[in-house]
Amino acid sequence: MASNGKAEPAREPGLARPLAERLEQAISGRPPERPIKVNLRVGGGRPGQGYLFDLRVSSDGEARCEFTDAMRSREGSMATSELDRRQLDPLLAGIVRSGVLDQPPPPPRFLPDTLVGMLEVTDDEVTYRAYFAADPEQAKEQAPMSPPLQEAVDATYRFGARLLGKRAVKP
User: Fold this and answer.
1) Residue 96: is its pLDDT beyond 90?
2) Are 91 and 125 in contact (CB under 8 A)?
3) 72-84: string of b/e by CB count within 10 Å (b at 16+)?
C-alpha cells in the first residue's frame, strides 16, 4: 500500500489511555486539539430480519444516527443534529467511566449470521476499536462483552436513542 504521508492511527491497547485523557479534557470544557469521534455501528441479520444502528458523533458538534430493526418490527428512522459540548458530555463521560479505553479490545471472531457491532472512539491520532456480538443470545454463546465494553456500548445506544427520540434501540 502506498504511503500518503499520513500517519496511521494507533490501535495498540496501551495507546488508548491518552485517548481517555483527551475525552476527560473535552468533558472538563477544554476543547480537544482534534475532534473526538464516537461511532457505534451494529448490523446484520437474515434477509427480511435485518438490524442496523449507525451512530456517528463528533466533538465538533455533528451527530448522525440511523436505525432500522426488521427483527422486532420497529419503525426505522434517521436523525442528524448539531450538538453543543454539554450535550456530548454524558456520552464521553460514560465511555471514560466504563474503563473500556484501558482494556485491550477483544479479538473479532464471530460465527456466520452473527449480529456484529463495532465501537470506535478516535481523535484521528489514537483509535480504540472493539468488535462484539451485539445480540445478547449470540453473545452468550460466542463471546460475552466485558463489563467495561458493555457499559460503553450501552451509553452510546442511550445517546443514539435520545437523538432519534426513541425509548430503546438495542437489538
Assistant:
1) yes
2) no
3) eeeeeeebeeebe
Q: Is residue 45 one of the residues assigned to a domain? A: yes
- The answer to whether residue 171 sits within a structural domain is no
Paired sense of beta strands 51-58 and 62-69, if any: antiparallel
Cβ 162 vs Cβ 108: under 8 Å: no
Taking only the tens place, the pLDDT of each residue in 97-121 is: 999 999 899 888 888 888 999 999 9
User: CA 72 to CA 50: how far, in whole Å?
Assistant: 9
Instruction: Give the neighbor-by-neighbor strand order of the sheet with 116-122.
Output: 74-82, 62-69, 51-58, 37-44, 116-122, 127-133
Q: What total of structural domains would you count in the chain? A: 1
Residue 81 belongs to some domain of the structure: yes
* Band of pLDDT at residue 17, cut at 50, 70 and 90: low
Locate 131 and state its grid cell: 468488535
Q: Determine whether 107 is exposed, middle or buried from the number of CB atoms within 10 Å of its CB (0-12, 13-18, 19+).
A: exposed
